[in-house]
Amino acid sequence: MERTIRVVIAKPGLDGHDRGAKIIARSLRDAGMEVIYTGLHQTPEQIVETAIQEDADAVGISILSGAHMTLVPRIVEGLRENEAGDVLVVVGGTIPAEDAEELRRLGVAEVFTPGASTSAIVDFLRGALAPA
């Protein structure tokens, strides 16, 4: 029997728009994943703590505020500092291409920009988290 993938969907910072995050959460659930949605206005520390407490396989960060280069690295580093560096981090939102490359360099597995299909996100997570 295949293990269920556990994903934390998080909205860091002051970004108050969560429609996209909820659509992704529903799509991941429909694909058979277990989803923990943190709600709005989470700090990086809260997101890291949730990922650890929920034994998450991945954290999906939805961010539209433009603060991605400040908040996302804090989440990635917080996971590493708490011996959870194996938790896959993906980001979705309005991220310029040059910032997406820098986020990947810092440890983000993938960046999904507006227009990415939910099936592409599901497929990426399944592929990246498949048992070795």
Give the helix/strand layout.
Elements: E1 6-10, H1 19-30, E2 34-37, H2 44-53, E3 58-63, H3 68-81, E4 88-93, H4 97-106, E5 110-112, H5 118-128
Parallel strand pairs: 1-2, 1-3, 3-4, 4-5
Describe this protein's structure.
This protein has a single domain, classed as Rossmann fold (3-Layer(aba) Sandwich), CATH 3.40.50. Helix content is 43%, strand content 18%. It has five helices and five strands. Helix 1 crosses helix 5 and helix 2 runs parallel beside helix 3. The radius of gyration is 13 Å and the shape is globular. The model has no long low-confidence stretch (mean pLDDT 95).
Keyphrases for this structure?
18% strand, 132 residues, Rossmann fold, 5-stranded parallel beta sheet, alpha/beta
Q: Which range does the strand content fall in?
A: 15-25%
Number of strands: 5
The number of domains: 1
In helices, the fraction of residues equals 40-55%
Alpha-carbon distance between the two ends: 15 Å
- Poorly predicted runs are none
Number of helices: 5
Name the CATH class: Alpha Beta
Largest sheet: 5 strands, parallel
- As laid out across the biggest beta sheet, the strand order is 2-1-3-4-5
Q: In angstroms, what is the radius of gyration?
A: 13 Å
Short description:
The chain is an alpha/beta fold and 132 residues long. 43% of the residues lie in helices and 18% in strands. The protein is globular, with a radius of gyration of 13 Å.
